[in-house]
């Protein structure tokens, strides 16, 4: 399921929220009608076109006037073009703007590097008071939308290509994470679409006799520090997996915790210091940059092998 489809699915949640709360409004970036929300509440849907700075500014103004605005805009553009507006108009002024950002990571790969969102976590993590969540499947995305709706402050919901994880319905808590698989040899901490790849890597590693703990780090800021510290103290070998540059994202956040803790070794699976210039289908881009199950398992095996 694409990030846009996940966003449209989340719009169903927004329609329910709008029915419950007359202050809920939707501000979008030239996406046209947004499913049930637009059909039920056309007067509360504002499409401002392809003008991301204005998009966030309008949302901040609505929040300042007492509304509860949700922004729907492509991750690469809303995070970079609108960074100043997110920082100043939303976070600095504590306006409760909630940004739903599809096309995170490499999902828009066929459109080239300009459409990749590989810096967004790093950028927004630096903003004081900013909440960042990255759900692992479309049902968790719906739970994330409800969670940030109740938050008094700005939030960014990162939506990559999301399917539906089998038998997964864990509660969603800001600042939390979810332990998906148990293991004592290596811990794989994944976020967003990489969680499904990490679960597949767990199965491949198990066939090799390697037991991997898999943790879905759905809350990137605030971060579940206790889960990271537990993995570092109990296992000692950690691998992060994300559709993001290895600098500043989940891998950077975990590295900061380990540096302060003084325990554990880390390997980061992500896009290294290169632009992804290959024009290829999304699954091929994941494979090329080692973000698929094979890539994650390969890094985990190498880390475990260092102690053999």
Structure write-up:
The protein has 308 residues and is of the alpha/beta class. It has 2 domains: 3-159, Rossmann fold, CATH 3.40.50.970; 178-305, Rossmann fold (3-Layer(aba) Sandwich), CATH 3.40.50.920. It is 41% helix and 19% strand. The protein contains 12 helices and 12 strands. The chain has helices spanning 3-20, 35-40, 52-64, 75-80, 83-92, 120-125, 138-149, 194-207, 225-234, 250-261, 282-288, 293-305, and strands at 24-28, 45-47, 68-72, 98-102, 131-133, 155-159, 178-181, 186-190, 212-216, 219-221, 237-245, 265-271. The strands form 2 sheets. A 7-stranded mixed sheet has the order 2-1-3-4-6-5-10, with helices on both faces. Strand 11 (237-245), helix 10 (250-261) and strand 12 form a beta-alpha-beta unit. Helix 8 packs across helix 12 (293-305) and helix 9 packs across helix 10. It is globular. The termini are far apart. 53% of the residues are buried. The mean pLDDT is 95.
